[in-house]
Amino acid sequence: MAAPGVMDKLVSLCKRRGFVFQSSEIYGGLGSVWDYGPLGTELKRNIKERWWHAMVRARDDIEGLDAAILMHPKVWEASGHVAGFTDPLVDCKTCKARFRADQLGDAQCPQKPSKHPGEHTACALTEPRMFNLMFRTFMGPVEESASVVYLRPETAQGIYVNYLNVLQSSRQKIPFGIAQIGKAFRNEITPGNFIFRTREFEQMEMQFFVKPGEDTEWFERWRVLRMAWHQELGLKAEKLRWHQHAEQELAHYARAAYDIEYEFPFGWQEIEGVHNRGNFDLTNHQTASGKKLEYFDQAANTRYLPEIVETSAGADRIALTVLVDAYREEQVEGETRTVLGFHPAIAPIKAAVLPLVNKDAMPEMATALFNDLRTRFACFYDDGGAIGRRYRRMDEVGTPFCITVDGQSAEDQSVTVRHRDTMGQDRVGLAHVAGYVMERL
Ligand code: GAP
User: Fold this and answer.
1) For a substitution probing ligand 1, which of 203, 310, 311 has the most ligand atoms within 8 Å of its CB?
2) Helices 6-16, 315-326: inter-axial angle, 10-degree rounding
3) Which of 44, 49, 280, 399 is deepest in the core (most CB within 10 A)?
4) Gap between the Cα atoms of 22 and 35, Å rounded
5) What SS3 string covers 265-302?
6) Which of 196, 270, 280, 311 to mutate to test the pocket of ligand 1 (most atoms within 8 A of CB)?
């Protein structure tokens, strides 16, 4: 397990270097809501693009969708979320704090000395009651029950209600999938651990529609593919594992479910779920809407309601995972070097261009190189301070390559490429720098 304090150091680095800021910080922040700064935005975008490429662009059998956050309220009745998307909640009448009834053993009572809720003599816990996690608001000017709408708690439902539209417009045949990246909202009782569990977050979900009876086979295939994706993202294999949901853990829609878990400094936690949802959702939407949602299999001349295998990952949670996985401290020449050892493909900045000194035509050469490289990948120009310090600043934000223009550059049209992880340096001809970096991304 990582040393204690890693999360505190990471949260501080994220703020200092512009990865993640607290939402509405000048007003004291908003509980468990976070904003992404310049580098965090690039990091999360790279993760999402990698997912989109693997799930949509590189496959013939998956189409993309961008459904609205607000949906007809009947969607959430049919999906079972109005009745069943709840957590058991207890209130303390003394300190007014709220806890998840099923996690009291992990919770801290705000009274001092801090104990688990219910263990102080002053604790006065209510009986558990079910608390719905969906955010509600009103559509239009009248705040009445007829105008209640929900902020979606998962993106999946936008896919189910559009599945026939996508099928017909794309001329796909079953088996096929629909993928979507978008915001989801949950009024979590116990959010926390930085961007791990928040009330507003982004999901990357794919729903794969299969012939009845082929669900288990596809479920197993998707499990293999999704675990491989996380490993290709550069996450350490020994920090990843499967957790199979026992009967009592299964969500209301699931026939079977496995979580991909990562070992965070605060323990093993879910980062993605792979679910066999059977025909739960389509059956309910067909009944509630009165619209036939069956697939017509031309070859077999039969109609059926497809079954669904879902892969569901949180973009923010995976951003936290790659940050935690990449963070390390090393002793170099008596100083601590902090490194974010991101896989180059997701590093927010791929290369920094650094003139060794601000004279002898070095800035001009470096600027020309920078202007060329920035058209190909995310680059940063830095001419401030000692070269060692500039290298350290780039290590701390995970930039895999630092390209230094020095006294020799003008003479032989070459530069130094310094590698973040080994700190080794190569001499590369100016004309080959772009290719050299791109090969290694
Ligand atoms: N459509 C299925 C579904 O939503 P889930 O297991 O509730 O399944 C899937 O969520 C993923 O969404 C999780 O593995 C996690 O990565 C992310 N996620 C869920 N709740 C989250 C929250 N409150 N904050 C950040 N990410 C969350």
Assistant:
1) 203
2) 110
3) 399
4) 6
5) CCEEEEEEEEEEEECHHHHHHHHHHCCCCCEEECCCCE
6) 270
Judged on CB neighbours under 10 Å (0-12, 13-18, 19+), 44 is buried
Cα 316 to middle of ligand 1, angstroms? 10
Lookup result for tokens 């559509």: 139
Q: How far apart are the first and last CA of the chain?
A: 29
pLDDT band for position 191 (cuts 50, 70, 90)? confident
The Å distance, Cα 312 to ligand 1 centre, comes to: 7
Tokens for 372, please give them. Answer: 């060329």
The contacts of residue 86 (CB under 8 Å, 6+ apart) are 130, 131, 132, 133
Cis, peptide link before residue 175, omega less than 30° from 0? yes
Write out pLDDT tens, residues 36-76.
999 999 999 999 999 999 999 999 999 999 999 999 999 99
201 C-alpha vs ligand 1 centroid, how far in Å? Answer: 8
CB 17 within 8 A of CB 36: no
pTM assigned to the model: 0.95
CA–centroid distance, residue 53 to ligand 1 (Å) = 21
Taking each helix axis from N to C terminus, what angle separates 315-326 and 38-52, rounded to the nearest 10 degrees? Answer: 110
